[in-house]
Amino acid sequence: MELVYAYPAERGRGVEAEIVGSLRDRFGHVVQRGREERDAERGDRSDVLVTLEVTDNKAEAALTALRAHPLVIDAAARSFGERV
């Protein structure tokens, strides 16, 4: 299943490595499938949206772990949908 999460771009790419490594340690198969930098919805900054692939039976637990990470702005299954 695909999961997507966002974090502030100014925190650097080390955030991605930390998160993916942590999820792999806890849940096994985790693959980063995409990365996109976008203007933030609020403020004069950018956010990074990252797409991960995790095994279906671990998706809910991985999503909960993502949402609990202090640098993750938001996380969702499949996508956030398009902003209007």
* Largest β sheet strand count, sense and barrel closure: 4 strands, antiparallel
Element order, helices and strands?
Answer: EHEEHE
Low confidence ranges: none
Please give the share of residues in helix: 25-40%
The gyration radius over C-alpha positions equals: 12 Å
Strand count: 4
Structural class: alpha+beta
Structure overview:
- By secondary structure, this protein is of the alpha+beta class.
- Helix content is 29%, strand content 36%.
- The protein is built from two helices and four strands.
- The protein has a four-stranded antiparallel beta sheet, with helices on one face.
- A hairpin with a 6-residue loop joins strand 2 and strand 3 (46-54).
- The longest helix is centred in the first third of the chain and has 14 residues, at 14-27.
- The model has no long low-confidence stretch (mean pLDDT 90).
Explain briefly what this protein structure is.
The protein has 84 residues and is of the alpha+beta class.
Tags for this entry?
single chain, 84 residues, alpha+beta, four-stranded antiparallel sheet, 29% helix, globular
Explain the layout of strands and helices:
Layout: E1 2-8, H1 14-27, E2 30-39, E3 46-54, H2 59-68, E4 74-77
Antiparallel strand pairs: 1-3, 1-4, 2-3
Helix pairs in contact: 1-2
